[in-house]
Design brief:
Layout (H helix, E strand, L loop, with lengths): L4 E2 L6 E2 L3 E3 L4 H14 L3 E4 L14 E4 L6 E5 L4 E5 L4 H8 L4 E2 L11 H6 L16 E7 L5 E5 L4 H7 L8 E8 L1 E2 L2 E10 H6 L1 H6 L3 E6 L5 E10 L8 H25 L4 H11 L3 E6 H5 L7 E9 L3 H12 L8 E6 L14 E9 L5 H13 L3 E2 L9 H4 L6 H11 L8 H7 L3
Parallel strand pairs: 3-5, 4-5
Antiparallel strand pairs: 1-2, 6-7, 7-11, 8-12, 9-10, 9-11, 13-15, 13-16, 14-15, 14-18, 17-19, 17-20, 18-19
Helix pairs in contact: 4-13, 10-11
Length: about 425
């Protein structure tokens, strides 16, 4: 029987020669040894929430979901050692009783720690960096089964390369993550006219710890979300309220509208306006990770680009106008993050605005995404490594000041190209 793997969105699939699910680090080393003997490439799958071909292989596919334990907790420093396959949600739930939390999370938290950080996954907050910046130390297994511990002291360039590596250096088996004391967030959602929002955008972004918004191309409204720390006690919503808001309305009802848009594209403008006006005033006071993340049951594909924050307003306007020319029932999402210093971080070295566009499953995404990419290119955009894009190493090289330093680390750690595939060769070039 042929092995097969498919991503969450259902639009990336491969048939590896072997799908391996090791239960220990020693088993990972044994699998790599067997791969070397057979001359097969190796890729690692996280939770499958990337939309690119990053995982695809006809060689060995490593599933690290069994390496999902918390190994050590140092409450005095807030540093926690975890295995690479633990998910952000599982770690958050386990660490909350110990009064520890991630400083920031994205709007989903089902990804593995290794997968989320390797692709540069982020939340929002103009003074907060992406998730990989919290990696204090990384345990990386090389193709020969040896392990190296990478941090700012032991190997500064290796550490800055491994924090966002797209799996091109080796197998991350564990990491020490810098966390913060647990905190409660007050999340406030409200619709605001897009023009009003853009006229005073900096105040929204800078006056909130976490600010983001969704908008639809055919609607004048933006659905904003502001998350700020509060001294109020957590006030978990009842299960019925959660189900109504997060499952019935945000997922099932909107999914039905998207299906309608797929069958009847002329209905897309109506869907946009109706979905935006249905965005209600909403308030949530709860543990940080419960406010950050929401269930995502609708299947879609996505492109997201990081552009310099200074271009936020112009780029947002262009992408919104562009969306009126294409049939997609899905929204546009906008977030902000602070600079960091990982070599391949899309936010590396600059205050960053992330703009994401989506296409519903079964609908043609390429014309829309290519048109959006042309806008992002104009603003020196860098693609999110887990989202669709059409770039190559040639088009990306000049967008990353430390590109050559990442390449040097890659040659040092994986000289034979064990951890590559067609996607890695396209976006990073051959070894």
């Amino acid at each position: 029987m042929t092995n097969s793997w498919v991503n969450w969105a259902g639009d990336q699939t491969c048939a590896p020669a072997t799908i391996a699910t090791p239960r220990s680090v020693d088993e990972v080393a044994e699998i790599l040894g067997n791969a070397a003997t057979s001359g097969r490439p190796v890729r690692v799958a996280g939770a499958g929430h990337s939309f690119t071909e990053a995982v695809l292989t006809d060689g060995v596919l490593l599933d690290l979901s069994n390496l999902n334990r918390i190994l050590d907790v140092d409450k005095s420093t807030g540093r926690v050692r975890v295995q690479a396959g633990i998910t952000l949600n599982a770690a958050s739930n386990a660490l909350h009783p110990l009064d520890l939390a991630f400083p920031n999370l994205g709007d989903i938290d089902v990804q593995t720690v290794a997968g989320a950080t390797a692709t540069g996954t982020h939340g929002t907050g103009s003074r907060l960096q992406n998730l990989s910046a919290a990696l204090h130390s990384i345990e990386l297994m090389l193709a020969d089964g040896s392990r190296v511990e990478l941090n700012a002291e032991t190997d500064p360039d290796g550490w800055r390369a491994a924090r966002v590596s797209i799996g091109a250096l080796g197998v991350i088996t564990a990491a020490t993550v810098q966390l913060v004391p647990s905190f409660v967030l007050e999340g406030i959602e409200r619709p605001i006219p897009v023009d009003d929002l853009l006229a005073d955008l900096d105040s929204y972004v800078d006056d909130n710890e976490h600010f983001e918004f969704y908008m639809f191309a055919h609607s004048p409204l933006a659905m904003t979300k502001r998350n700020n720390r509060t001294e109020l006690p957590e006030q978990p919503r009842g299960k019925a309220v959660d189900w109504f808001a997060d499952i019935l309305m945000s997922n099932y009802t909107f999914d039905a509208l998207c299906r309608l848009g797929r069958r009847q594209p002329r209905m897309v403008p109506w869907i946009h306006r109706g979905a935006a006006y249905a965005g209600s005033y909403r308030r949530q006071v709860d543990r940080s990770y419960r406010v950050f993340a929401s269930p995502r049951l609708i299947r879609f594909t996505e492109m997201e680009y990081a552009i310099p924050r200074a271009h936020s307003v112009d780029a947002i306007r262009e992408i919104k106008e562009l969306g009126t020319r294409f049939d997609t029932p899905m929204p546009i999402e906008v977030r902000w993050v602070a600079p960091d210093d990982a070599f391949l971080s899309p936010a590396g070295g600059r205050d960053t605005c992330y703009i994401a566009v989506h296409q519903y499953r079964g609908m043609d995404f390429e014309p829309y995404f290519r048109a959006c990419e042309a806008v992002f290119d104009k603003y020196d955009g860098r693609p999110h490594w887990g989202k669709r894009h059409f770039q190559t190493a040639e088009t990306l090289r000049d967008r990353y000041p430390d590109w050559h330093r990442f390449a040097e680390v890659r040659r040092r750690f994986d000289p034979k190209g064990t951890f590559t595939n067609d996607y890695i060769d396209r976006v990073l070039g051959p070894i």
